[in-house]
Amino acid sequence: MSTERPHSVSVAGVIVDDRGRALLIQRRDNGQWEPPGGVLEPGETILDALQREVLEETGIKIALPAALTGIYKNMTGLIVSMVFRCEAVDGTPTTGEETRALRWVTREEVTELADEAYAIRVLDALDAASPPTVRAHDGVKLI
């Protein structure tokens, strides 16, 4: 039996507005810009976690089901993340306990604000390729 710690599973939602922009949050804990999301809780389904995390971090309720656009593995942090393209159905973007700031960004702006490992998730969601993209990174750069 391996003594390494297990992987965690997380979700992120890329909310896209009618102008083709994506909503990014600036996290309070590390100041990084990324799509809203987080780790699944025990007993929680993937889509329930997606809806909960997006609502907690943005104040926006999303429509379900949402389209899976990519799966990403942080090779150093041992996190597998599923990213979904989402549609807002209710609420107004609001900062909160985990969110310092929110910003609607264009394709060009996302690459200026977010680390490569997070910017590519937003770009993949905007492109909404089928089948979903599968990528690996080290927490900052793609591998």
Give an overview in words.
By secondary structure, the protein is an alpha+beta fold. It has a single domain (8-137), classed as Nucleoside Triphosphate Pyrophosphohydrolase (Alpha-Beta Complex), CATH 3.90.79.10. It contains 3 helices and 10 strands. The strands form 3 sheets. It has a 5-stranded mixed beta sheet with strand order 4-1-7-6-10, sandwiched between helices. A hairpin with a 4-residue loop joins strand 6 (67-74) and strand 7. The longest helix is centred in the middle third of the chain and has 13 residues, at 46-58. It is globular, with a radius of gyration of 14 Å. The relative contact order is 0.25. The mean pLDDT is 94.
Give the helices and strands, then pairings.
Blueprint: E1 8-15, E2 22-27, E3 33-34, E4 37-39, H1 46-58, E5 61-62, E6 67-74, E7 79-86, E8 88-90, E9 99-105, H2 107-113, H3 116-127, E10 133-137
Parallel strand pairs: 1-7, 6-10
Antiparallel strand pairs: 1-4, 2-3, 2-9, 5-8, 6-7
Helix pairs in contact: 2-3
The CATH superfamily is known as Nucleoside Triphosphate Pyrophosphohydrolase
From the alpha carbons, calculate the radius of gyration and give it in angstroms.
14 Å
**Helical stretch tally:** 3
- Distance from N terminus to C terminus (CA atoms, Å) equals 28 Å
What ranges have pLDDT less than 50 throughout 5 or more consecutive residues?
none
Dominant shape: globular
| Average residue-wise pLDDT | 94
What's the number of domains? 1
Supply the CATH architecture. Answer: Alpha-Beta Complex
The amount of helix comes to 10-25%
One letter per element, helices H and strands E, the order comes to: EEEEHEEEEEHHE
Strand order of the largest sheet: 4-1-7-6-10
CATH class: Alpha Beta
What is the CATH topology? Nucleoside Triphosphate Pyrophosphohydrolase
Reported for the largest beta sheet, the result is: 5 strands, mixed
Number of strands: 10
Secondary structure class reads alpha+beta
Strand content: 35-45%
